[in-house]
Model the fold of this input.
Amino acid sequence: MNEVMRVSDLVFEHSRKKRWLKKPEIFRLGPIELSVQRGETVAIIGENRAGKSLLAKMLVGTIAADSGEICLNSQRYNAAQTPSPKSHHRSNDIRMIFQHSSEAMNPGITVGKILNEPLRLNTNLDEVECKQLIENTLVKVGLLREHYFFYRHMLSDGQQQRVALARAIILQPKILVADEPFAALDPSIRSQTVNLILQLQKELGLAFIFISHNLGIVRHLADKVIVMENGQIVESGKTETIFRWPQHPMTKKLILSYQSLVPQQTLR
Amino acid sequence: MPMLDIKNLTLEIDTGTSRVKALDKVSLTVNSSEIRALVGESGSGKSLIVSAISGSLPSNWHITADRMSWQGQSLLSMSSAERREVMRRDIAVVFQHPISALDPSATLGEQLEESIPDEFVEGSWFWQRKQSRRSTAISTLHKVGIKQHQQYLSAYPHQISTDIGQKFMIAMALISQPKLLIADDPTRGMETTTKTQLLKLFTRLNQTKALAILFVSHDLLAIASMSHTMTVLYCGQTVESGNMKHLRKRPLHPYTKALLDSAPSFRNDLPPKSTLPTLPGTIPTLQHLPIGCRLGPRCPRAQRDCVITPVVRRIHDHNYSCHFPLHMEKL
Done:
C-alpha cells in the first residue's frame, strides 16, 4: 500500500501531583488517529498550547507516549516504550527539523561532522562512502561541496535551514516532520525553502508533516490539514475543504482571522 | 505636515579597522494619523532606524542626517533632557525582543504602573493615586487583549510566554497615550487569531485617537491589511516608498515585486504546490556589501549601470531608486 504511516490511539498525559491548595494541572493529548500517504503533505495548525509541537515530537519518538501505536511501513511500534537500540529503522524512516534550526546545530563542529553524526550512529557505511553521501546531500539541498568545512556561524539563515534539511534527509527517510520550519525565515529565503521542499518531495517521494502559523503557506503546500485544540484533533480534511467550508468553531476562527488579513482584491 | 521627518539618515558603525555604512541615506516620513509600514528582511537595518529615532545608540555608532525632526524640532540638536521628554510623552517604542526588553528584577505590574505619566493619575492622596494607577494599568491590559490581568501583573518577565510579553510591551507603550507608536516587529511568532486582534486594536487606535504608527515588520500580510503607506528597505538603502495601494498594484522596484510575490496569500491565481518566484542568493552581510545598488548581484534586471548608486526618483507620492524600474515601458 501507499500508506507510510498510521497512528492509532496515541495518548500522552501530563499531570502534576496534587499539592496543598493547588489544583492539579492536567494536560491530555489525544487519542490521536492519523494516516499519512506516500508523498503527501500534512499541515498541523492550531493556537499556542494546543499540543502541536508535542504531537510532532511524539511522532518522531523523542518523547515517549503513554499508550498507542505507530505503524511505519507496516512495522509496528509501541509508542509507549522508550526506543530500544533495535528500532534503528524508525530513526531512519522518520526525521525531524526543529523549530529553531540554527540553535539546533552544534556550533563547535563543521557542517560535515554535523551531517556525519546521523550516519555514524545509524548506518554501517565506511568513511569514504559517508563523505560521498554527505557531499551528494549538500548538493541536493542547493549548497556547495565546500560547505563541508564550514561552521554554523559562517552560514546565513537560509543556508542553515538548508543544512538542517540536509541533516533530515541524509538517511533517506520516508517521512519528514518539521516544527515551524518557516517561522524564523525572511520572505525571500522562505520561498526558496518552500521551493526546495517541493522539489525534494517530487524527487524522493517524501511525506511531509509540518506545523505552521502561516496559513498562506499551509494553503499552498498542504494536501491535508489537521486542526488541533487543547490536545485534540478537532477537524481534519483536505486543504481546500477546510479553507472553504470550515466546520468546527476553532477552525472557523483561524480561517476567518486569516481571511480578514488577506486583501479583498485578491480573493475576488 | 509630517510628524516625523527623516532625510538622508546615514548610520556608520566602527568595526575597529573600518567604518561600515549600515544605513545609507535613508529617508522616511510619518505624517500625522497615518500608519506607515517599514518593510525589509533581517539585516536591512529596520531596527537600526528604530534605535536611531529613539536615540538609544552605542558610542561606536555615528549618525549623520540632513534632517531628522519631530514636529518641526530637530532631534539631533536637542539636549538629552528634551529628547527624553519627547521620547517619554510623544513617541512610544515597542522593542523587538519583549522578554529581554523588560526589567527582569521587577514585576510586570510595577513596570506598567511606572510608565503611567503623572498627569493621568487621579486623586491627591497616595492611596487614591495608587488605586488609580492600578485601574489604569488593568484597563490598558484589557485593551491589548490580556484577560487574566491578576495572574500577569504580579509575574516576573521570565515567567511569561513571549506573546504575553509582546502584549505587555504594547500596553506599556500605549499607556502614556503617545502621538506616534513605533512597533518593531510586534507580530513576530504570533498565531493568526492574536495577530488579527492586535492589528484591529492598532487600526482602531489610529482611527479614534489619530495615533500615528510606524509599523516595522516583514509580515506583508499584516502590513497590507492595515497600513496606508509603505517604505521598503534593502540592506540599509530605501528601495521604494509610497502609497500602499500603488505599491501593491504596480511596484516599480524589482525587490518590492519579489517581496510581494514571495507571499502566496497575495495570489489566488497560483496553483497549489507550484514553485514560488524567488530572488537567487541570500542577503549579504554588513562586511560584504556590494557597491552601488546593493540589490545588484541578486537583481534579475541588473545591468552595468547598477554599480552606481541610483538617485531617488519621484512620481507623485511614489519614490523609488532604481536605474531600470519595472512597468516603465507603459508610461
The mean pLDDT of chain B is 84. The longest helix of chain B spans residues 126-144.
